[in-house]
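4.2 Preliminary Data

To establish feasibility before requesting continued support, the project team ran the inverse folding procedure on a target of 263 residues. The structure was first converted into the token representation described in Section 3, and no sequence information of any kind was made available to the design step. The complete token record follows.
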């Protein structure tokens, strides 16, 4: 956990989704999916990996009652200092592995928008999902963000291309032999689509959808950032129309798995 806290203490999380048009597309597609599958008006929502509150504040503006927490004290302090801080029901610092501050069946919706791609140990990911489901009411919606194994593999490939030491370049490229499997890089865990889909097999949930929220960013970022307004709007329309297609999910960099608690 200390590695995650250290990383985000020195990272401008509040700028991540808004620093470029390519990055902003993830926010727009995610908000489309949340609006599509969640009844926001008067919903009691827990955002347990809220970062600096990009989604928490947006959902609160649309009528939801939002409790926002994050592991990183710097992030929660930024939420508390945000001009719209009063829109949130509560802001707290804490881990998604321990939601004991909340009673069972407390929320209509739980957003787990980061923990699954930072928890490198399968046991921790299991604890996280079970805690999210514990505080979620029966028939409530769990939303899990995931990072693709391809995202980390392609990132390592770019490192190899830029690596001037031939031995190190070969080592990184050899690691890509396993690019179709789960990937770990620093504090990031990349899941395969099959692993994401298996959530419904291991927990008392039924799948609602699995979607791509971030297309092949390494391949399209320079194009997207240079789009005119009309071109960008057409790009977003295309992303939204195709984000739940199996092929889009297969090649996504980031995704969103939405499921419903069955008991």
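Position-by-position output of the design step:
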């Amino acid at each position: 956990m200390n590695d995650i806290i250290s990383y985000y203490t020195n990272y401008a999380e509040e700028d991540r989704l808004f620093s470029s048009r390519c990055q902003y597309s993830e926010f727009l597609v995610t908000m489309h999916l949340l609006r599509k599958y969640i009844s926001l008006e008067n919903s009691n929502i827990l955002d347990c990996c809220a970062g600096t509150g990009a989604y928490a504040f947006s959902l609160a503006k649309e009528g939801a009652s939002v409790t926002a927490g994050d592991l990183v004290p710097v992030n929660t302090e930024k939420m508390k200092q945000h001009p719209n801080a009063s829109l949130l029901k509560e802001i707290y610092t804490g881990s998604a592995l321990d939601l004991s501050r909340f009673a069972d069946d407390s929320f209509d919706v739980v957003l787990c928008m980061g923990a699954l791609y930072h928890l490198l140990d399968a046991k921790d990911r299991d604890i996280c999902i079970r805690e999210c489901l514990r505080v979620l009411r029966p028939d409530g919606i769990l939303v899990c963000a995931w990072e693709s194994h391809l995202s980390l593999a392609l990132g390592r490939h770019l490192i190899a291309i830029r690596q001037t030491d031939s031995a190190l370049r070969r080592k990184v490229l050899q690691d890509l032999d396993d690019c179709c499997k789960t990937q770990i890089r620093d504090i990031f865990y990349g899941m395969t689509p099959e692993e994401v889909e298996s959530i419904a097999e291991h927990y008392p949930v039924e799948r609602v959808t699995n979607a791509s929220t971030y297309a092949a960013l390494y391949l399209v970022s320079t194009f997207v950032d240079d789009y005119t307004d009309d071109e960008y709007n057409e790009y977003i329309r295309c992303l939204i129309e195709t984000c739940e297609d199996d092929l889009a999910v297969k090649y996504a960099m980031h995704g969103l798995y939405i499921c419903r608690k069955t008991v």
